[in-house]
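Technical appendix A lists one of the benchmark inputs used to test multi-chain prediction within the project. The record comprises two sequence entries:
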Amino acid sequence: MITAPKLIVHLALYEGEGSEPLAPPIRFELIRTLLEKGYAVSTIRPGGRVSSPAEGSLIVLGQFTGQTPPQAVGVSGAVQVYFRDIRDLDNPAILLAVEGLCGQAQLPRPGGWKPWFPVIDYDRCTNCMQCLSFCLFDVYGVSVKGKIQVRSENNCKTDCPACSRVCPEVAILFPKYRSGPINGDEINPDDLRREAMKVDISSLLGGDIYQALRDRSEKAKSRFSKERDDDRALKERQRCLAKLQEQMEIPAEVLASLPSIDQIQAKAEQAKARAVEALKLAAASSDA
Amino acid sequence: MSQPARIIYCHCAYAQVVPKAVKEEVLRRLLDSGVAFDAVADLCEMSAKRDPMLKQLVEEPGMKIAACYPRAVRWLFAAAEAPLPAAGTDVLNMRVDTADNVIFALLGDGFKSREAS
């Protein structure tokens, strides 16, 4: 993946020396609220060890018994630390204080991402480039060594697991998917057989998928010129799309947002060229 | 009672795939246990954003992660260029396991459920 890191705001609930612990129900509600708002929270208890951010910002919440500075710099010098005394504050007030601090200090807000993107299981991936060739939304790319990568996960269409369906090795996961093995569950021989049936696009469309689309386009043009039967063409297209949708669980919105046939053909040619180039690169890298 | 070196709890905040009752019970009992731990809103988000915390987490051995399928968690870390150590990491699956089993695996048998104690 090539996207630059985007920091998530980290909070710490401090209940060590120099602070008073929260009552258990209040502690649970506070942590749950903060997590559901998208914050990462370390719970600091006497004798325990948690992560400490190496960079960015840390907001430390607690019922402090002594004086704390409102702001400090971590020992590494790369972390800005903010303290907030939460004594006598209820959870909405604490959340408001955290959000206010984020705004005031221009800290990144939680969220702003889409919880749907593919993850490659490189133990299974054979770098065959089928996903690169198949995805019309440029989610996949290749490394300088010709290795397949998830490059633009934001382009991925929510709830569409179609690339994992075409992967012959069941190597593409969508962790938020409802069922296995696409959700990361272990793969058993039945899964492999089932996936193999679903990925057999050749049998589904009678050959290369893009060639099939081109053939359909040609047939449609020919039929239009001879019959001018728009209704029949529309029905045929709907039948084909319904079959794809059913076999590969492609959401209707994704099918509706597909590019035109000419654009698909152009993209297919580009993807094929990229895949060929990537495989050459990968071969050269393994020879070196 | 020995305390685990490092516990990570994922709340899977952006999807409904982990049963709410399980994740909330695990969170509640972790908090009640008195151990220190890191709770994250969503490991998928951290992976997608390549959060540097993931790299920091994998530097230490003996980590226990309460999240979802081990294969998914492993490759989420790898996608963030923070591969999990080949050995010494336990991933507990709150999608399919009970809160009791997850807590037992995280904390040991000193932390029985309210019903059992």
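The first strand of chain B starts at residue 6 and ends at 10. Residues 20-33 of chain B form the longest helix (14 residues). Comparable benchmark entries are summarised in Table A2.
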